[in-house]
Amino acid sequence: MLSRTAADALRALIERRGSSTINDPFGMLRIGLMMKTRLISIYLLAASLSGISVQADELPDWSGVWQRFEGNGGIFDPATVEPADGRAGSPGVRQYPPLTRAWEDKYAATLELVAQDRVPDPISICGTPAGYPRMLALPDVYEFIVRPEQTWIITENGPNILRIHTDGTEHPPPEELWPTFTGNSKGRWVGQTLEFTTISMIGEAHTILDRSGLTLSDQATVATRMYLTDEGLLRAELVIEDPLALAEPWHVTRHFRRLPEGTRAYDYACAENNRNPITSSGQTLTLDTDGNVIDKVIDGEVIE
After folding, report:
1. pLDDT digits (tens, 9 = 90+) for 84-117
2. Strand runs labelled E in 156-272
3. Is the domain of 242 the same as that of 101?
4. Under a CB-based contact definition with an 8 Å cutoff, are residues 275 and 88 in contact?
5. N or C: the chain end with fewer CB closer than 10 Å?
């Protein structure tokens, strides 16, 4: 089929350029180069599509705008948070994932700083992505762009885009990977369920899971399953493994609900109306509408 396609394309090129082209060696050379380019494009397209196991009309309907379902005050894992109604970043609020001793000690030290308002959120620096898997626990809304060869998870709170490749390709070899905010995701469709694995995330260097200060290392791997429930919720089941941070796999479940038809997602910059600068020691300040600091204590010093 490919050789027939190539022959047809060659005849079309000659007809378009005139029969005299056959007697023109330079003309034939140009046609040869054009044919080579077209054949390479056909081969690359065929290679990229060869691993796709579903057609567009077989994919689930994840269209529209979605919002996180759990009203948990920004906590990443609502199943292990104490107190149950605790908000991320509030004193005394924490989660209980299966941390290693070293990571538990690190988390406990961070919680002490959280109680003093001394743990800045990396995304407070405008333009810093939340990264994966934290982007599944953000405020604002989500869009899920589903295609046979790739699925995108886009958050309004951002910038955050997770690209999940479902074209049959594998993760690149280690020498071609470097840690990024959302890592590298490869997956497949099993019926109406999207299954994918994410590796090469940037970890604690520039991301946290929520404002309790909980982190993972850059050795973490996240296996995710996403599907629509009978109640119409989009369910995300995560199994997180991390040889440095976790003593055993950590299971986290998140849900999203579809918002009414006509709801739109908008882009915005967090620097707009930004009234919460951060001091060099990590204290978050508050400004009034004229840009004046209204905090009474800054870095331990009482302001008159």
Report:
1. 999 999 999 999 999 999 999 999 999 999 998 8
2. 160-165, 184-190, 193-199, 221-228, 234-241, 250-258
3. yes
4. no
5. C
